[in-house]
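INTERNAL TRANSFER SHEET
From: sequence group
To: structure group
Subject: Uroporphyrinogen decarboxylase

Please process the attached sequence and return the structure record in the designated field. Keep the field labels unchanged so the import script can parse them.
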Amino acid sequence: MTFAPLQNDTFLRACLGQATDHTPVWLMRQAGRYLPEYCATRAQAGSFMGLATNVDYATEVTLQPLERYPLDASILFSDILTVPDAMGLGLSFAQGEGPKFEKVVRDEAAVAELAVPDMDKLRYVFDAVTSIRKALNGRVPLIGFSGSPWTLACYMVEGGGSSDYRHVKTLMYARPDLMHRVLAVNADAVAQYLNLQIDAGAQAVMVFDSWGGVLADGTFQDFSLAYTRRVLAQLKRTGADGAVVPRIVFTKGGGLWLPEMTALDCDVLGLDWTMNLGAARRIVVDAAQQKTPDFIAARAQPAGAEGQNGLKYTAPKALQGNIDPNVLFAPPEAIRTEVRSVLDSFGRPHTYRAAPGSTHIFNLGHGISQFTPPEHVSHLVDEVHAHSRRLRAA
Ligand SMILES: Cc1c2[nH]c(c1CCC(=O)O)Cc1[nH]c(c(CCC(=O)O)c1C)Cc1[nH]c(c(CCC(=O)O)c1C)Cc1[nH]c(c(C)c1CCC(=O)O)C2
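Return from structure group:
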């Protein structure tokens, strides 16, 4: 399987800590209900799962936001809940309501039954990845994704969305042994799922730990972070074409744990809007400097090379985020002001020779709202490109 050469590698370069002439931008949930063309295709497909399981529809809606906006990356159209669905829990999305599972995993018997699903049940996802790569024709890279083991467990135990996470936290505190088993199965399923997306053509992969931030300090490390680590440890480093596949970990509400997350074996950390990007940048750069005392020399070396002191040079993690998606409800001039403020908070973009590294990928701090006026997104994307070029020229 060979695909057309990539025409815009800005996103992949930024993921790997390399200099770019502008800050790349894409948006979480960029293909979704705020786009009238998405709603039209969804109506044809009849349901969300009808859309996600049909390769042609999934390809069509993945490309829809790219037709409107000069985004620097695309993301597979699917959902994190396809994995528990393949485990036999019976996923459905009722119109106007959130996701629902027919079966919930709350007791010893249900936990005992749980197993890594036959990946053939998820073939429609891998087929969609290959079809989207072909349709993109090298325009921008394609991101594959999965939920984190903890975030998937939240839906599997609650049976759907939740406002208080009562059932999943009850299981965690009352029967940590059962919770650990659910998370171990999820981690191994997610790792296989992402590796097959990589084989099918995904050029980067992202783990959505959307509900990591609802955990208490201590439980986050044991029940979320440890299993994200278990996923990362099993992931392939390169795709079928030999290109490095960057890994992104996004923990909503995880800003306080950023110092601990710098130790993850991933390339990019995603942040929600509560975190100052300049402060986050200092944390990731400090973490890399501790591992590599001669930091400037490290920048001149490929990551992973052996230094004179015998230490492995580690590039600081790139950061992805983090504008409040609600900014998109404000008038265009206010959107542009907020975009500049997020870019400025990250600070002067890294160039090879200039001091301390870390690169920035612009994104929302969480998924785009279905009520967003589509024309407002044009202002956001345009301002990211224009202002980030200005920052590099300054
Ligand atoms: C928690 C989570 C889910 N799904 C996802 C997450 C993690 C990201 C996050 O925290 O937002 C991830 C996801 N879901 C979807 C994508 C597609 C790719 C993209 O970003 O464009 C991605 C990356 C499509 C979708 N997944 C869903 C929709 C809307 C459903 C529809 O079209 O009817 C889309 C476009 C449904 C979904 N799926 C999920 C929920 C809670 C819902 C209902 C909420 C809602 O209605 O917005 C679970």
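Handover comment: The mean pLDDT is 92. The two ends are 43 Å apart (CA to CA).
Transfer complete.
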